[in-house]
Design goal:
about 350 residues; two-stranded antiparallel sheet; 8 strands; Dehydroquinate synthase-like, alpha domain; 2 domains; Rossmann fold; 4-stranded parallel sheet
């Protein structure tokens, strides 16, 4: 057993657990068929496969999973293990939080994005009516156990997706991390320093512990996400989805441009951020006529107050401040900047 498997067994041994439900997808279970062998030898364990990626984040998947759990039956002393990427931790956490008014769960993330972001902090949820994360709960896991060896089998697109969130952490609270990563132009398990994962996850735990319910400080974690979610949602509706972290990276360009428009960062800083992300992330098809739809998605963002767009702005790379109200014109200008640097 590796360190994470040992940690999991020790946790279970010190808690009262009736059954264990492992929520994962077919790809992970096929890649690592023996990962929970010792657990299964000792405890009543059930594996439920969810669809891969964003396909798992819908109410029908939740309903089917609750029905399976009721038929087993699974009681309130059970433990759910969410074993997979960000979509599994998002959906699995929501399933755990709603089932019998809440049962315990542990996240074992298998993607970079989940290791540094999605699996931490208790935000759970699903997509609804075409809106990203429109329905969900803040419901904390018992613990998050990170096994970096999973990165060795992670497809490049998924690795690059997680790297988009890593760039975000560098932008909002770690100027030293920004200095370290901006020379890295080849994303691979070998070029991602394990200490970067630790620094990002520690930062998220620190921020979320101070503002669990997302009223103030925690909103700094949404840098790049207002416009990024709009791009992601638009691409999803067009049948040409892009990964979450890819959309966030493009959102970082846009929201850095808004920070520049409002005289918070310099043109030199904006250009450095824009050019670094450009060389790592291609631009999907975002025609001019997509602006209205993307603005609509921005206006549906959970952080808004009425019709005012609420975002996080950079003070400089490595320092950010949440809760700024901006106009739709500033969003449109940022989308123009995004298209301009790619053409």
């Amino acid at each position: 057993m590796n360190i994470v498997q040992n940690q999991l067994i020790r946790w279970i041994e010190t808690h009262t657990v009736s059954d264990i439900v492992i929520l994962t997808d077919a790809k992970i279970s096929q890649l690592y068929p023996d990962y929970f062998n010792q657990l299964k030898e000792t405890y009543s364990t059930h594996t439920i496969l969810l669809p891969e990626g964003e396909k798992s984040k819908n109410i029908d998947v939740c309903r089917e999973t609750w029905e399976k759990m009721l038929s087993l039956p699974i009681d309130r002393n059970a433990l759910i293990i969410n074993w997979g990427g960000g979509s599994i931790s998002d959906t699995g956490g929501y399933i755990a939080g709603c089932y019998k008014r809440g049962i315990r769960y542990i996240n074992i993330p298998t993607t970079l994005l989940a290791m540094i972001d999605a699996a931490i902090g208790g935000k759970t949820g699903i997509n609804f009516a075409g809106v990203k994360n429109a329905v969900g709960l803040i419901y904390l896991p018992e613990t998050v156990l990170t096994d970096a060896s999973f990165l060795n089998t992670l497809p490049y697109e998924e690795l690059r997706s997680g790297y988009g969130e890593l760039i975000k952490y560098a932008m909002i609270d770690d100027d030293n991390l920004w200095e370290e990563i901006k020379g890295n132009t080849a994303i691979s398990p070998e070029t991602i320093d394990p200490c970067w994962i630790q620094r990002c996850s520690t930062l998220k735990k620190k921020i979320t512990s101070q503002d669990l319910y997302d009223h103030d400080l925690r909103r700094v974690l949404n840098f790049g996400h207002t416009v990024g979610h709009a791009i992601e949602s638009y691409c999803m509706t067009q049948g040409t989805p892009i990964n979450h972290g890819h959309a966030v990276a493009l959102g970082i360009i846009c929201e850095s441009h808004i920070s520049w428009q409002l005289h918070r960062i310099s043109k030199c800083q904006l250009d450095e951020i824009s050019q670094y992300i450009k060389q790592l992330y291609p631009l999907p098809a975002l025609p001019q006529e997509a602006n209205e739809k993307m603005l609509e998605f921005c206006l549906n963002d959970k952080k808004n107050n009425g019709k005012c767009l609420n975002i996080t702005l950079l003070d400089e790379p490595g320092h950010a401040t949440p809760n700024y109200e901006i106009s739709t014109d500033e969003v449109l200008a940022s989308l123009h900047h995004l298209r301009t640097i790619y053409h």
